[in-house]
Amino acid sequence: MAKVSKAPSDGVFAVLPLRDIVVFPHMIVPLFVGREKSIKALEEVMGQEKQILLATQMNAADDDPEPDAIFDIGTLANVLQLLKLPDGTVKVLVEGASRAKIVSFTDRPDFHEARAAALVEPEEE
User: What is the pTM of this model?
Assistant: First the structure.
């Protein structure tokens, strides 16, 4: 069982709700993003530390999931590349860094943002 830690990566992160995909640490995945809230979250992190919390939403058909419709375990990821496409969507290449648990969502209206704590994996023997 993973333990919650107070690692340097603990803090407040923009959240990118994912449909029908789970990103794990060390995975490199291209994602196509079209929701306005998600694009704003990506734009926010590109101007800063380029880290975003990827969390799968419970219902893939939900276009604007509420915080309680997003799983509370996700992956803190580094944004490697962001490409704005002509149709207004964004292609982003992310690399999973570590698992994280969402502690609480903030009241940010323009995109999902949450306080999260890193989950430390036990060392294998």
Answer: 0.86
